[in-house]
Amino acid sequence: MNPTTRTITALLVAMTAIGMTACRGERTDKPPRQLFPDMDDQPRFEAQRESEFFVDGRTMRPAVEGTVPWGRTPIDVENEAVAETTWAETFRVQRARFLAEDEAVYAGETGAGGEETDPARWVERIPIEVDRELIELGRKNFNIYCAACHGYEGDGMGPVGQRWAGQIVANYHDEKYKDPALFTGRDGYIFYVGRQGLYDANGVLRMPPFKQALDEREMWGVVAYIRALQASRGVPADSDLVPESERDRLAAQHPGLVDRAIAARAAAQEPVDQTASVEPEPAAEGGVQ
Ligand code: HEC
Predict the structure, then answer these.
(1) Structural domain tally of the chain?
(2) Beta bridge partners of 109
(3) Atom 35 of ligand 1, nearest CA residue
(4) How far is the CA of 168 from the centre of ligand 1 (A)?
(5) Does ligand 1 have an atom closer than 6 angstroms to the CB of 184?
(6) What pLDDT, on the 0 to 100 scale, is given for residue 14?
């Protein structure tokens, strides 16, 4: 390096150092340089402030007459003729969910109030129409969200359920989840637990909530599917409730099962009584044929 090159290099280093530090932490009264002033300083009114510009003194302007507000319900819900049109349906659903006025549908509650353990607080039956589609929706979501712990059959023996360090995961085939005289047997309570989760007396989580993942209709679907799972247990292999195709499959997979069921009944001298072993919940009836 000759002396000239050395001087130039030193100068460059010094300039770079100054360039990097000069603006840091320095205060100045001069206005900042604005390359695009119109983007930095956009004239605007503060919300809720009084306006000197508009005669009515309001900074926040009312919507121009006839404006269709976005995200609100522009329909007259009292007016049935309008409310029943298909285009209005989306808005009606939005509004209904926003207001969540219908306690049965949105909270699973009867409106009677009371403790969680009070059966009267919970609707006994699913308050929306239960059809095949709802149960299928429920099956899908149950298998995604609940089966890991509660098991695909709802017996609490899912892969996570078996290793669950805390409490024993609920087995939906327990009588207490079927008997509507108990709060745990009410559709509304199962819906509520699925949505809100479970906490112990100290607020420690026992089961996570799924409200964030499943909306009301989806959770009622899960409840319907749980009812279908319950109804599918304890059905004698030769019962009329088991479709012919399934009976053949069972007979092939478990040789002697159907014969044993018939023999067991004959031994007990019982007439075929399907209602004794299976009580199809009216709620789930639509889909369990
Ligand atoms: C991470 C594991 C896990 C998942 C996932 C899970 N649960 Fe649970 N659930 C539990 C445990 C554990 C209990 C028992 C808690 C207890 O009794 O302390 C339980 C209990 C319940 C009960 C009975 C409540 C009672 O008071 O006896 C219902 C109903 C229930 N779960 C519904 C659901 C539904 C619906 C889903 C899916 C949307 C779901 N659970 C997903 C772990 C889980």
Answers:
(1) 3
(2) 122
(3) 194
(4) 9
(5) yes
(6) 67
Long-range pairs, 103-110, Cβ under 8 A, ≥24: 104/188, 105/216, 105/220, 106/216, 107/188, 107/192, 108/186, 108/187, 108/188, 108/189, 108/190, 108/191, 108/192, 108/195, 109/188, 109/192, 110/188
CATH of the domain at 118: 1.10.760.10
Q: Which residue out of 126, 145, 152, 169 has the highest number of ligand 1 atoms within 8 Å of its CB and is therefore the one to mutate?
A: 169
- What band does 280 get if pLDDT is binned at 50, 70 and 90? very low
Q: Given the CA of residue 223, which atom of ligand 1 is nearest to it?
A: 35
How far apart (Å, rounded) are the C-alpha atoms in residues 164 and 157? Answer: 10
C-beta of 154 in contact with ligand 1 (< 6 A): no
Residue finishing a domain among 57, 84, 101: 101
* Enclosing domain of residue 187: 103-231
Are 108 and 221 contained in the same domain?
A: yes
Q: Check pocket membership of 148 for ligand 1, CB cut-off 6 A.
A: yes
Asked if 195 contacts 116 with a C-beta cutoff of 8 angstroms, the reply is no
pLDDT at 136 over 70: yes
Query: What's residue 165's pLDDT?
Result: 62
* Residue 192 forms part of a structural domain: yes
Task: Please report whether residue 52 resides in a domain.
Answer: no
Determine whether the shortest distance from the Cβ of 205 to ligand 1 is under 6 A. Answer: no
Confirm whether 95 is domain-assigned.
yes
In the chain, count of helices (H) and strands (E)?
Answer: 14, 2
Q: Are residues 139 and 249 in the same domain?
A: no
Cβ–ligand 1 contact at 284 (below 6 Å): no
